[in-house]
Amino acid sequence: MRAVSPVLSLRGVTKRFGGLVAVNGMDFDVAEHEVLGLIGPNGSGKSTTLNLISGALMPTAGTISLRGTPITELPAQDIARRGVSRTFQLVRLLPSMTVLENVKAGAVFGHRRRWGAEADTHAQAMLESVGLGGRGHLRVGQLTYIDTKRVELARCLASDPKVLLLDEWLAGLNPTELEEGIALIRRLRDEGRTVILVEHVMDAIRSLCDRCVVMASGTKIAEGGVSEVLSDPEVIRAYLGDDDA
Ligand SMILES: Nc1ncnc2c1ncn2[C@@H]1O[C@H](COP(=O)(O)OP(=O)(O)OP(=O)(O)O)[C@@H](O)[C@H]1O
């Protein structure tokens, strides 16, 4: 059941990089407990949109609100403290640190800050929840690709985020890992989190998302139920024009 007021709202959000308009007047809402797919061809502005929401970048124009409060001007750490957390397309972990230390770093900087033994216990629990129980002592450099992704998600979850921004978290997984990854994201939603999923894996979009927003060249070209938007001729055209379609 959708809540009436959105958790996250974007209104007229625009980002220019010099002469390039990477994100152009984006408007959309994300409802509580919703999994929203943000899709579109390569270079359409999806990661930039996540960067604007998480505060890694500041919009050139427009407003981003979290439960009705504008967060547009806030630095990234303040947005994280308000319960918005993200994974990165290229996993960003500290390879010389252990798995547990990387996850604890998320617990210290996030929404619900924990220290010392409490941070340890919580980080262990997050590792369990992503299927890495008992592997906290390993160095990140010793892990397989899927496991580094799991650590990145555990790091992100360590701050108890209410809104999760997943930037191609499922990319590069084999079919078995993909099934596990989809089940994991579904569980995060069942735990009461709201998720924005930037993803090229359409099976994941179909099986996880309540709705989709489709971007092309920085602009929203479609929004609605997944099967509806994926059969929209403009969306099909946008993807067919893309080398990776
Ligand atoms: N920091 C930056 N400086 C200049 N241009 C940028 C910067 N970040 C992104 N861009 C440009 O903005 C556009 C949108 O990029 P973005 O990474 O948001 O697309 P995307 O939809 O996430 O693509 P992909 O699916 O390939 O990850 C691209 O043309 C990209 O080259």
From TrEMBL:
<keyword id="KW-0547">Nucleotide-binding</keyword>
<dbReference type="GO" id="GO:1903806">
    <property type="term" value="P:L-isoleucine import across plasma membrane"/>
</dbReference>
<dbReference type="GO" id="GO:0005886">
    <property type="term" value="C:plasma membrane"/>
</dbReference>
<dbReference type="GO" id="GO:0015808">
    <property type="term" value="P:L-alanine transport"/>
</dbReference>
<dbReference type="GO" id="GO:0015192">
    <property type="term" value="F:L-phenylalanine transmembrane transporter activity"/>
</dbReference>
<dbReference type="InterPro" id="IPR003439">
    <property type="entry name" value="ABC_transporter-like_ATP-bd"/>
</dbReference>
<dbReference type="Pfam" id="PF00005">
    <property type="entry name" value="ABC_tran"/>
</dbReference>
<dbReference type="InterPro" id="IPR051120">
    <property type="entry name" value="ABC_AA/LPS_Transport"/>
</dbReference>
<feature type="domain" description="ABC transporter">
    <location>
        <begin position="8"/>
        <end position="242"/>
    </location>
</feature>
<dbReference type="InterPro" id="IPR027417">
    <property type="entry name" value="P-loop_NTPase"/>
</dbReference>
<dbReference type="GO" id="GO:0005524">
    <property type="term" value="F:ATP binding"/>
</dbReference>
<dbReference type="GO" id="GO:1903805">
    <property type="term" value="P:L-valine import across plasma membrane"/>
</dbReference>
<protein>
    <submittedName>
        <fullName>ABC transporter ATP-binding protein</fullName>
    </submittedName>
</protein>
<dbReference type="GO" id="GO:0016887">
    <property type="term" value="F:ATP hydrolysis activity"/>
</dbReference>
<keyword id="KW-0067">ATP-binding</keyword>
<dbReference type="GO" id="GO:0042941">
    <property type="term" value="P:D-alanine transmembrane transport"/>
</dbReference>
<dbReference type="GO" id="GO:0005304">
    <property type="term" value="F:L-valine transmembrane transporter activity"/>
</dbReference>
<dbReference type="InterPro" id="IPR003593">
    <property type="entry name" value="AAA+_ATPase"/>
</dbReference>
<dbReference type="Pfam" id="PF12399">
    <property type="entry name" value="BCA_ABC_TP_C"/>
</dbReference>
<keyword id="KW-0813">Transport</keyword>
<dbReference type="InterPro" id="IPR032823">
    <property type="entry name" value="BCA_ABC_TP_C"/>
</dbReference>
<dbReference type="GO" id="GO:0015188">
    <property type="term" value="F:L-isoleucine transmembrane transporter activity"/>
</dbReference>
